Amino acid sequence: MNLLQIDLLSLRLLVFAAETLNLTQAASRANMTLSTASKRISELERITDCALFVRLPRGMEITAAGRAIADHARQVLESVNRMAYDVNDFAMGVRGHVRLTANTSAVVQFLPQDLASYLAQNPLIRIGMEEALSDDIVAAVLDGRSDIGIFADNVSSEGLVKQVYRRDELVLLVPRGHPLATHQEASLATALDYDFVALNQGSSLLRRLTDAAVANGKMLKVRIQVSSFDGICRMIEAGLGIGVLPFGSVRQELLGSRLEAVRLTDEWAKRTLFVGVASEANLSPEASKLYDYLARMETRKDV
Prior knowledge:
Layout: H1 8-20, H2 23-29, H3 34-48, E1 53-55, E2 60-62, H4 64-91, E3 96-102, H5 104-109, H6 111-121, E4 125-131, H7 134-143, E5 148-152, E6 161-175, E7 185-186, E8 196-199, H8 204-215, E9 222-226, H9 229-237, E10 243-246, E11 259-264, E12 270-277, H10 285-295
Parallel strand pairs: 3-4, 3-5, 7-11, 8-9
Antiparallel strand pairs: 1-2, 5-12, 6-10, 6-11, 6-12
Helix pairs in contact: 1-2, 1-4, 2-3
């Protein structure tokens, strides 16, 4: 078996065939004649020594081997696309790429302005940013899948070099007319008898709330879980519960009209977001420069 004989066009056809389970449609999407497509699939089966599809009177059925090999083909094609993207950037004068992974709080509150300012000063740097949960961010940086990570202060970050990126404050968000809406400040304990709208399982914010509720001898009554801060606001606005969010993540036009933000008196409501790397010495010059920039954000007087 010599897999080096497999070309990218055949892998692309395989992916199309796996998606459509119809060779005519797959051939059309790959800009091939039906006979050419049939020969290429047969050649793939010869090279891999596996039956990839079972031909039926109408269409075809993919085998377990075909499904597994199609998954590998997708990964290969994605890698080639990323390579082409990088080559095009370098041809246009881009000096380097930096992989940044950040949690939702950083993405919603701070990074749009911070990165816009940075890229205005460094237009030849390409930043690939991905949003993830704080635990996953730490793992991605340690595994080398990300150069720089921004994560919450209540997750384990052993093995990373980290500095303060930003600080924010959590507030209790309630709909207008709620019994707590007239309060300027409150502790979480006063809110634990009400239903909560929260982020999905695994988020550092949900963990912080759950831990705080347990410390008060109660359970957090989560009625609805969503995947975004905006989703939480919409659910609270509809009267489906109350929630806790970073103050900077709440759209200002909602405050005072449909939602009320009540300051939390609990000490844990003041959070720190860290920026971390696996090793400062092993960073590329481009990644090192961005890391230093992000680590100065909290102390800059103009932000």
